[in-house]
Amino acid sequence: MVSPPHEAMHRIFQHDPGLFSRVSRFLGIDLPKPIGATALPTDLTEASPVERRVDTLLRFETAEQGSFLLAVEAQGRKDPDKPASWAYYVSYLWTKYRLPAVLLVVCQDYSTAKWAQQAVSSGPPHMPTLTLRPLVAGPHNMPVITDPEEARADLVLASLAAITHAAEPVVNAILKALSTALRDAPEALADPIVEFTAQGLGNHPAKHLWRNLVAVDLSFYKSYISEEIRDEGRAQQGAQDILLVLRQRGLDISDDVRTRITECGDPEVLRDWLARAVTASSAEAIFESE
């Protein structure tokens, strides 16, 4: 199953195709700003039983270098089968579109990034027929943006910085800078940044900080992720209120009761439990009618 971080790591380039030209300077290449970019179909399947899909595929037009294709792959772990698939993607795209193709692999940890950027050749060592050299964006080369002004200057790059550093301690400072920068951004611009960042953080601990920052700093936004985050915040507060009432009344709270209360995400249910907690004879009694 495709994970939210996987989707965020490549779809962010669909959202802002010009991001690649800004990221390229951190990859050691000099790519001029494109004058045009088009999203292309990602299905690279031929008339065979094998289905092959690249994550994101963009066509760029530049004044200096003409047209080229960018295939973006999000890679969460080492996979020995991937280099062969990537080589197929690049070869197929060259054949289909008659344009040079660039492969960008986006990673969230140093080990996977180091593995992904290794050149892989097809053919005997002394006669390599095809050599694959992906560009790799990850925590080893993406910028650490902790200044709100720097984040405000390029919100999409700041979001990518947070996503690629999701497992690093510095991500907390990046998220704080990004949330501060988003306060002054128009809602239409801020909403997708909030959602890309939330998806990209996945199950990393930093997701809790981002949800809290969005709930407080960006409380006026109404995006799906923002509303979900605020709902979770309200549920957490409701659970804490129930536990507080039970403690104040001197009732024993078992681990099972505590877990059931804190893991409930339905505000309506929590309100019912809170009302019962005021008069219940035991902590378990708040669940009796269910």
TrEMBL record:
This is Transposase. It comes from Streptomyces lancefieldiae.
